[in-house]
Design brief:
about 350 residues; alpha/beta; Rossmann fold; Phenylalanyl-tRNA Synthetase, Chain B, domain 1; 2 domains; three-stranded antiparallel β-sheet; 13 helices; about 35% helix; globular; binds S-adenosylmethionine; binds zinc ion
Length: about 350
């Protein structure tokens, strides 16, 4: 066995040559940031929530939910070796947890928080998972099938998510919004509305945390956040709308991503609470976590962004520091921010025509 320490727990992991889904039991140290975020977030919920860690692997995430956030956790994995390892890792850390060995889609019970962390796509689990919620709850979902969500495998995205992706410079944002839209549609069919509390893209995966509340009106309200992104591959203009726009001002026909979540990706209140909680939490590099959460909190809520090099090439501008670009856009009266999707990109409510007049007039 290998031994890893993460957060406040030390776990055993069967030896492996390289990290793949074919390992006896899967533990990916690269996903520590993903786990840190969810643990920090659950520290901001009322204590002693009932959490289902539906695909728990070694149990590292589940054990940390108990020790670092004070919740009750059922840790499940379909792999019997994983279920045994969860129990022995719990014993090793003297943590009280219920280990289960079931198909996630066959679990009964009611939970306040359900965490779905599969290999690849979560689509087979999101719809049936809705049965596990009470009147309200929190759903956490990881997706690593970014090639589908971001448009490299368009047919896979249509097949799995029932959504058209868009292979553009901002395809990771479109992918995240397709995933959120999928979660919102599954929830709505069970009469739940969703509010994203923290959703992000990092290191080739997407992670969404949403608050779910029962109610037909709430479900209808969520559906109003679904819409189209209209993209012109001739002049690079982009916009969003409830119904598709057909023709760009340049005369070209728009391509679309649809349906995508066009609303907020995060709750500022939750992000502020997480920022207050960071110092007390086991989140590895605290400064990196603070920078990441602050970046998310300050993002302008527009469902796409601009890469500064892309804009420079479209408008035939010399390269300029991102801070200079942001200041010029703000000075012209537009909202503008950096974005967590890319260190060279920005979000703004300025259109391509606005950007052209700001930078070329
Ligand atoms: C990416 S790993 C989970 C990693 C873990 N959550 C962590 O943070 O370390 C995915 C896990 O899902 C399990 N799994 C796959 N299909 C499942 C199913 N239908 N029900 C429950 N677990 C499943 C696999 O055995 C694997 O351990
Ligand atoms: Zn155009």
């Amino acid at each position: 066995m290998y031994e890893f320490t993460e957060g406040s727990v030390t776990i055993d992991v069967p030896e492996y040559e390289i990290q793949t889904s074919r390992n006896e039991v899967f533990y990916n140290p690269v996903m520590e940031f993903n786990r840190n975020v969810s643990i920090l977030l659950t520290r901001c919920l009322p204590p002693e929530r009932d959490i289902l860690c539906g695909m728990a692997g070694t149990g590292v995430r589940a054990l940390r939910y108990v020790r670092e956030a004070g919740h009750h956790v059922d840790a499940n994995d379909i792999n019997p070796l994983a279920a045994r390892l969860i129990s022995s890792n719990a014993e090793k850390n003297d943590i009280n947890i219920t280990a289960m060995n079931k198909d996630l889609n066959l679990i009964d019970g009611k939970y306040d928080v359900v965490d779905v962390d599969p290999f690849g796509s979560p689509v087979r689990y999101v719809h049936p998972i809705m049965r596990l919620f009470k009147k309200e709850g929190y759903l956490f979902v990881t997706a690593t099938d970014t090639a589908a969500l971001c448009g490299s495998f368009k047919n896979a995205c249509v097949r799995k998510y029932g959504a058209l992706p868009l292979k553009t410079a901002y395809c990771h944002e479109v992918g995240l919004r397709i995933l959120l839209g999928y979660v919102a549609r599954c929830a709505a069919s069970w009469n739940y509305g969703v509010t994203p509390i923290m959703s992000f893209y990092k290191d080739h995966y997407m992670r969404v945390h949403v608050y779910i509340r029962r109610g037909k009106r709430r479900a209808d309200e969520s559906m109003r956040h679904l819409g189209y992104i209209n993209h012109c591959f001739s002049c690079s203009h982009r916009s969003h709308s409830h119904t598709p726009e057909c023709t760009c001002a340049c005369g070209n026909t728009f391509n679309h991503a649809n349906p995508v979540w066009t609303g907020k990706l995060c709750s500022e209140t939750m992000l502020d609470e997480m920022l207050q909680e960071v110092q007390q939490a086991h989140v590895g590099d605290k400064e990196a976590m603070i920078r990441f959460i602050t970046l998310l909190r300050d993002e302008v809520s527009i469902p796409y962004h601009w890469d500064s090099h892309e804009m420079a090439s479209i408008l035939r501008l010399p390269a300029a520091p991102l801070e200079t670009i942001l200041s010029k856009i703000r000075d012209a009266g537009h909202a503008c921010s950096r974005t967590h999707f890319s260190p060279t990109s920005f979000k703004t409510d300025a259109t391509l025509a606005d950007l052209a007049s700001i930078f070329t007039d």
